[in-house]
């Protein structure tokens, strides 16, 4: 089903919202399914903060299945027997697209010389990829979380490029709480002595700081119900076979502690700390209303695309009110929009997990 991961160099320098441009931009991407002769069946999938292009193929570092393998494939809701699916690694990331770890042209990594980027810059690179592939109009753009931000940005800034826009568990701007959690993670990375101002390439990476950042963020992806059901206040089993014996120290006494430490250490082996800094900052800067004069409805003025927004009742990172805010703006702009709040116990991560109702929404909207 999948092609091998491919890398394409954009033919022109990429202009950036912060001023200036980024030369020789590489985009790593994967495709699934066959592109029709009239190139009308393409779907662009936009990944979340820590995602990548390996949406339905094994991850080359971890060996785990693609992050949306349950959703993308032959006969699945995003049916690769019908659609040509494209998923590109965002610029600023570390899975093949140009980012802080890439060569700056002088034989050394960009590191913190990499320019500050925005969600719109990421989408601008996606549009460059589509242009190079000869795809003028998408059947749909689909994204969850940060991917939903990208889908909204494409719809607002390149309205002619997609017939359908599917946004799942996302928002049009970050709250102060969202920004606060991201800043906690960034400070954890920069407080790690091995960060060295971002110039750690070729040496030891700031894995401890990145692991703490991941732990803090991962809590926001889950719900209290999910954490309670999975771990409660259960204690770790001890090497001697005892159960419930407390160490009264700082080892992982509770199962939830052990789980978060595992999440953090695993993440630090597959992701780049500087990329985490840049991408979280791009998410914090995202404000679709501010980009269009302060009124969100103006971002979608004159759009002809059909929209579908999905939220989850247990998502406290991007709660349903955030999706309703976008829906109201689309209504004010006269756009065709549908909206559904789904019940799921998993929190923000529900869009990645087994929620059959989401499958039905995705399949119905894309069909």
Automatic annotation (TrEMBL):
It is found in: Cytoplasm. It is an enzyme of class 2 (transferase). GO terms for molecular function: homoserine O-acetyltransferase activity. It comes from the Bacteria. Pfam families: Abhydrolase_1. Its EC number is 2.3.1.31. This is Homoserine O-acetyltransferase. It comes from Qipengyuania citrea.
């Amino acid at each position: 089903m999948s092609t091998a991961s491919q890398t394409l160099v954009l033919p022109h320098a990429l202009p950036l919202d912060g001023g200036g441009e980024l030369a020789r931009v590489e985009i790593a991407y994967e495709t699934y399914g066959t592109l029709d002769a009239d190139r009308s069946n393409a779907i662009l999938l936009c990944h979340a903060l820590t995602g990548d292009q390996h949406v339905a193929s094994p991850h080359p570092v971890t060996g785990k299945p693609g992050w949306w393998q349950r959703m993308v494939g032959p006969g699945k809701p995003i049916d690769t027997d019908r659609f040509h699916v494209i998923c590109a690694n965002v610029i600023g990331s570390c899975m093949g697209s140009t980012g802080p770890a890439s060569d700056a042209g002088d034989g050394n990594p960009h590191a913190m010389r990499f320019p500050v980027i925005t969600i719109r810059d990421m989408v601008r690179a996606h549009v460059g990829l589509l242009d190079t592939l000869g795809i003028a109009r998408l059947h749909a753009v689909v994204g969850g979380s940060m991917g939903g931000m990208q889908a909204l940005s494409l719809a607002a800034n390149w309205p002619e490029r997609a017939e359908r826009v599917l946004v799942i568990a996302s928002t049009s701007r970050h709250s102060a709480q969202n920004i606060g959690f991201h800043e906690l993670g960034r400070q954890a990375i920069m407080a790690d002595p091995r960060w060295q101002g971002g110039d750690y390439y070729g040496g030891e990476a700031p894995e401890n700081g990145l692991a703490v950042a991941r732990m803090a963020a991962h809590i926001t992806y889950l719900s209290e119900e999910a954490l309670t059901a999975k771990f409660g206040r259960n204690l770790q089993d001890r090497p001697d076979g005892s159960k419930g014996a407390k160490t009264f120290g700082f080892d992982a006494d509770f199962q939830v502690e052990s789980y978060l430490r595992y999440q953090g250490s695993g993440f630090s082996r597959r992701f780049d700390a500087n990329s985490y800094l840049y991408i979280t900052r791009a998410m914090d800067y995202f404000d679709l209303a501010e980009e269009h004069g302060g009124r969100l409805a103006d971002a979608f003025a004159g759009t002809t695309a059909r929209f579908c927004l999905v939220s989850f009742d247990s998502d406290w990172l991007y709660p349903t009110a955030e999706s309703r805010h976008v829906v109201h703006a689309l209504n004010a702009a006269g756009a065709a929009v549908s909206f559904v709040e789904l019940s799921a116990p998993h929190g923000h991560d529900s869009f990645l997990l087994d929620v059959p109702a989401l499958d039905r929404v995705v399949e119905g909207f894309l069909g």
